[in-house]
């Protein structure tokens, strides 16, 4: 994505948030050396298998490009944002992550289940 497109996306995302007073930060993935082994960022397939929704547990929960803390951050959300659940995976460290879409935005990504108010999507039928 070009810098110009990123700037337009950031402006489009920020405008409604300024009007509602909600906290959301959207960032571009950083360019750094790729981790290897258990710390590598994976991008598993996902589909919308859940009708669940929830909120962040705190004011600065990271929505990431993959289900691992080393993956890039696409947004930071607070408790005021509703997150629609799609499905969940267990990463290489054995932690469960839920793929979410941020309500009112065309932004989706992965959130560590312990950072979700209700523990995220974890029903066996909702596994990605």
TrEMBL record:
Keywords, ordered alphabetically: Signal
Signal peptide: 1-33
Lineage top rank: taxon: Bacteria
Residue stretches of biased makeup (Low complexity): 32-42
Chain segments carrying region Disordered: 32-65
The protein, known as: SH3 domain-containing protein
Taxonomic classification: Bacteria, Bacillati, Actinomycetota, Actinomycetes, Kitasatosporales
């Amino acid at each position: 994505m070009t810098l110009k497109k990123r700037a337009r996306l950031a402006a489009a995302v920020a405008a409604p948030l300024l009007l509602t007073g909600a906290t959301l930060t959207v960032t571009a993935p950083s360019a750094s050396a790729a981790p290897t082994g258990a710390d590598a960022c994976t991008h598993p397939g996902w589909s919308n298998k859940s009708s669940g929704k929830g909120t962040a547990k705190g004011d600065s929960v990271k929505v990431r490009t993959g289900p691992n803390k080393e993956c890039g951050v696409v947004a930071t959300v607070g408790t005021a944002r509703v997150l629609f659940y799609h499905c969940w995976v267990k990463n290489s460290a054995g932690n469960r992550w839920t793929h979410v879409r941020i309500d009112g935005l065309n932004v989706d990504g992965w959130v560590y289940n312990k950072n979700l108010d209700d523990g995220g999507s974890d029903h066996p039928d909702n596994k990605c």
